[in-house]
Amino acid sequence: MASSESSGRLIVITGGGDGIGRATALLCARRGDRIAILDKNGDSAKQTADAALVEGAGGALGLACDVTDEEQVAQSFALIHERFGAPYGIFANAGIDVGGLIHEMPLERWKHILDTNLTGIFLACKHGLRQMLEAQVSGSIVCTSSPAGFVALAAGSCGAYSASKGAISSLVRCMAIDYAKFGIRVNAVAPGPTETRLGWNNVPAEEVETMRAQLCREIPLGRLAQPEDQARIVVWLLSDETAYMTGSHVICDGGILAKSSISV
Ligand SMILES: NC(=O)c1ccc[n+]([C@@H]2O[C@H](COP(=O)([O-])OP(=O)(O)OC[C@H]3O[C@@H](n4cnc5c(N)ncnc54)[C@H](O)[C@@H]3O)[C@@H](O)[C@H]2O)c1
């Protein structure tokens, strides 16, 4: 566990041990925020917390927490509260991308994807919101959706992942309405293909280079995103610069959702 205290805003980040969550934690840290990282991988959560302190975080805590388990989420938020008080911001971001055709998909895999991506966001928001409401914090929540929540990805076999992301987008709009009267904003980021472990999860290792080159040809901006491209959007949504935004999605996808996939 890494920790120290200061007066910066407290931001809780799920899935902050790696990828987009980690990049967001480090960017928040450079702004002097206090950071709490929840990740299934406790070592990576602690490593991000340590790195956040080096980057200038006003305090940092890294906790092992499986977001599918309500007891673990509740205990983690209790520990965070004990150390830092109520959060100002929550980045509900932990996710997995496991492919598969629906007629072949074992129920357990379907449940694992939905539990991680959707129920994990529900639980983080539930326990974070309780503390924000109790402390009367008018804060900001950002959830990670995906272009897959809006369209079927051309690669196919992403029914469970897409269903989870579409549901997250619906949840974001509903929470935005429910908590607007408390001054709590809820928005989503929808990252396009981003260079993270998850981004290549469904591509065999020997095909990654070929696939990366193909994606660069297909993505209008000609490259994949770096995690920092997404982190800048999240930090912006967490900040007062977006004080009049709630229930919104920021699509950060290099142009793929704007592009028709057929050649006419
Ligand atoms: N990388 C992309 O191309 C891409 C595109 C669209 C959306 N997203 C979304 O961005 C989010 C972050 O993904 P990433 O690309 O940074 O992936 P990543 O694999 O680099 O990071 C995900 C983190 O979530 C953690 N995690 C997974 N299951 C968890 C659980 N049950 N409890 C707690 N932590 C858990 C992992 O340990 C990991 O540290 C996900 O919601 C993903 O769906 C990613």
Explain what you see:
- This protein has helices at residues 19-30, 42-55, 70-84, 107-134, 159-179, 208-218, 227-238; strands at 10-14, 34-39, 59-64, 89-92, 140-144, 185-191, 249-252.
- Mean pLDDT is 96; it is low at 1-6.
- Helix 1 runs parallel beside helix 2 (42-55).
- Strands 3-2-1-4-5-6-7 form a seven-stranded parallel β-sheet, sandwiched between helices.
- With 264 residues, the chain is of the alpha/beta class.
- 45% of the residues are buried.
- It has a single domain (10-198, 227-251), classed as NAD(P)-binding Rossmann-like Domain (Rossmann fold).
- The N and C termini lie far apart (55 Å).
- The site of nicotinamide-adenine-dinucleotide has 31 residues, from helix 1 and helix 4.
What would the keywords be for this entry?
43% helix; Rossmann fold; single chain; alpha/beta; binds nicotinamide-adenine-dinucleotide; 264 residues; disordered N terminus; seven-stranded parallel beta sheet; 7 strands
**Residues in helix, %:** 40-55%
Low-pLDDT runs: 1-6
Shape: globular
The CATH topology corresponds to Rossmann fold
**Mean of residue pLDDT values:** 96
Mind sketching the topology for me?
Blueprint: E1 10-14, H1 19-30, E2 34-39, H2 42-55, E3 59-64, H3 70-84, E4 89-92, H4 107-134, E5 140-144, H5 159-179, E6 185-191, H6 208-218, H7 227-238, E7 249-252
Parallel strand pairs: 1-2, 1-4, 2-3, 4-5, 5-6, 6-7
Helix pairs in contact: 1-2, 1-7, 3-4, 4-5
Nicotinamide-adenine-dinucleotide (NAD) binds at residues 14-15, 17-21, 39-41, 44, 65-68, 93-97, 116, 120, 144, 146, 191, 193-194, 196-199.
